[in-house]
Amino acid sequence: MVGSVVDVSLMDPCEKVEALPREFDPKEISCPITSEANGVVEENGKREIVLGRNVHTMCFTIDEPDADDEITGEKEAYMASVLARYRKSLVERTKHHLGYPYNLDFDYGALGQLQHFSINNLGDPFIESNYGVHSRQFEVGVLDWFARLWELEKDEYWGYITNCGTEGNLHGILVGREVFPDGILYASKESHYSVFKAARMYRMECVKVGTLISGEIDCADFADKLQLNKDKPAIINVNIGTTVKGAVDDLDTVIKTLQENGFTDRFYIHCDGALFGLMMPFVKRAPKVTFKKPIGSVSVSGHKFVGCPMPCGVQITRLQHINALSRNVEYLASRDATIMGSRNGHAPIFLWYTLNRKGYRGFQKEVQKCLRNAHYLKDHLRAAGISAMLNELSSTVVFERPKDEEFIRRWQLACEGNIAHIVVMPNVNIEKLDNFLNELVQKRASWYQDEHIQPPCVAAEIGEDNCDCVLHKN
Ligand SMILES: Cc1ncc(COP(=O)(O)O)c(C=O)c1O
């Protein structure tokens, strides 16, 4: 069930929605603008993002209060109606969300009582600052849980609750850079864009490594690239679940490749587990992410599989590395070792709450359900003659990009070139998948009724075996 932390008196749909002056039209809010006005144009069948076109999006304006507003309460009623309509649109959009790896299945009703507090964990989680309205006690509890999961002793780890997986990558790569100031950053070309952003921000030399069809890093290419830069240490981003294909880089082979190419103790590995960092420990046969191996840091997003209703993440690194990065800050009476200054103090409480409720066993059950449902989706797509691929350790189903942008928007599918994906999260059940499959099969029949228009070939993206185009179907 979907819970809420906002004031119930404002959000009670029975009370407020009934009072609306006109029928609610979810399209008005969820799909208010044409794709062109939104900065995306389609020309000759090609989508292009045009900077500068995104200036006239729909918005709720802010109007100066009337002088007598306090007396009439009209403004209050107006705002309540906007919020109620917005809530309805969220319910509607949540029902049709499939493309982004967010677990929308949660109930945090019990935490509603905390919304009145400005909880801020600025500074180091382990050093209390002068600001007393914080949640460090929850933050450290959550960090301990993750350090245990990734097998790093309490007195050997450092970490913090970040604002998102991106911040985890920015931090992990920065720690690597501080450990090896002249290190070169290596990342597979299918790494998340935040990795390449980190390289730009820190002005680091960055080498892109090729990938296999599955999306995982190609260690033969990695070895070649290491050979070209033997004089500089290596900082490597290892993907524990790539963004588009859910591919898991083979950590053991990455380490072996480093050692075989003479980088025995001149490397730093950051593991980007934004999506899959909390799923993989519970997948049978999956290689282990553990600090018993020579890795420097691991990060994960808290709003993805874990299901926090606000963006957040967890970053864990070795305590020995953090001293190189941190500075004392007198004004805080704490230490600065994080990327951001102020940090969301609510997020650790949400994480603490859900980890307590689900525990290792709860997550294990949810992972198994996601993998089962992902197989169901992939098998049914293939049975319907639709190109599709599912990596062994993943719940991300990659398939042929639907032809119709309206369909893509309705199901909020993430697309890249000729492929789209669905990330099967705990809230994605068989009923939802069946609805999606039925609609896709029906629509597809109309998109391709003219035999001159054929579904795209996606062999280059997901392999010939997974491709069902005219050329490759058997
Ligand atoms: C592999 C990977 N890394 C990093 C990120 C960034 O995570 P966030 O959106 O939490 O910043 C994502 C997001 O999808 C991702 O897939």
Automatic annotation (TrEMBL):
Keywords, comma-separated and alphabetical: Decarboxylase, Lyase, Pyridoxal phosphate
MF GO annotations: carboxy-lyase activity; pyridoxal phosphate binding
Keyword Cell membrane: no
Top-level division of the source organism's lineage: Eukaryota
InterPro entries recorded: Group_II_Decarboxylase (IPR051151), PyrdxlP-dep_de-COase (IPR002129), PyrdxlP-dep_Trfase (IPR015424), PyrdxlP-dep_Trfase_major (IPR015421), PyrdxlP-dep_Trfase_small (IPR015422), Pyridoxal-P_BS (IPR021115)
Needed cofactors: pyridoxal 5'-phosphate
Catalysed conversion reaction: L-serine + H(+) = ethanolamine + CO2
UniProt-listed Pfam families: Pyridoxal_deC
Entry keyword 4Fe-4S: no
Residues recorded as bearing N6-(pyridoxal phosphate)lysine in the entry: 304
GO biological process, one term: carboxylic acid metabolic process
Family from the record: Belongs to the group II decarboxylase family.
PANTHER family in alphabetical order: PTHR46101, SERINE DECARBOXYLASE
NCBIfam families linked: PRK02769.1
Record protein name field: Serine decarboxylase
Lineage, highest ranks first: Eukaryota, Viridiplantae, Streptophyta, Embryophyta, Tracheophyta
